[in-house]
Amino acid sequence: MTTATPAHRPSFHGSGAVSFSTKGEYGVRLMVQLGRRFGTGPASLADVATDEDLPRAYLEQLVMSLRDAGLVTSTRGAHGGYELARPPAEIRMSDVLRALEGPLAPMICASDDPEHAIVCDRSSRCTVNVLWVRVRDAITSTLDSMTLADLVPPRVVGVDDPKGVLISS
């Protein structure tokens, strides 16, 4: 009698067990670029797309979610574009990712949205829900403790450079 050996599964196959989509990844990169430009006026999405090597059309979709969440503002016209609605230190990363991804939860039953809990018919007798809630709380706590300013290098403003020079470490 021969037993079939299970197929080899790579330990990491690209997405991970708890992951964010390209909405979250690209949206955070967009916000970091706007954070770097904070106080210098609106930034064009074409410039951000070039700087980050991202598709402009996708950034246009993402920025709508960020605008709807009150994280960015838009200006029309020849020198228009997008800028942060408030300073980087006042924008929590949890707010950014919720605007882009929706509720932060590893499983729908652990969402902080009460309606998601009723989707699972096992919630009244589930013994593992506590695990998913703890994972959610750990992720949320980390994102709540970080602001956009934590991801944006500080600027040094010189006399002949009113926009400032980025300090890189």
Structure notes:
This protein is an alpha+beta fold. The protein has a single domain (22-158), classed as Arc Repressor Mutant, subunit A (Orthogonal Bundle), CATH 1.10.10.10. The protein is built from 6 helices and 4 strands; from the N terminus they run αααββαααββ. The chain has helices at residues 22-36, 45-52, 56-68, 93-101, 114-117, 129-145; strands at residues 72-75, 81-84, 155-158, 161-166. Strands 1-2 form a two-stranded antiparallel sheet. Strand 3 (155-158) and strand 4 form a beta hairpin. Helix 1 (22-36) crosses helix 2 (45-52). The longest helix is centred in the C-terminal third of the chain and has 17 residues, at 129-145. It is elongated, with a radius of gyration of 20 Å. The N and C termini lie far apart (62 Å).
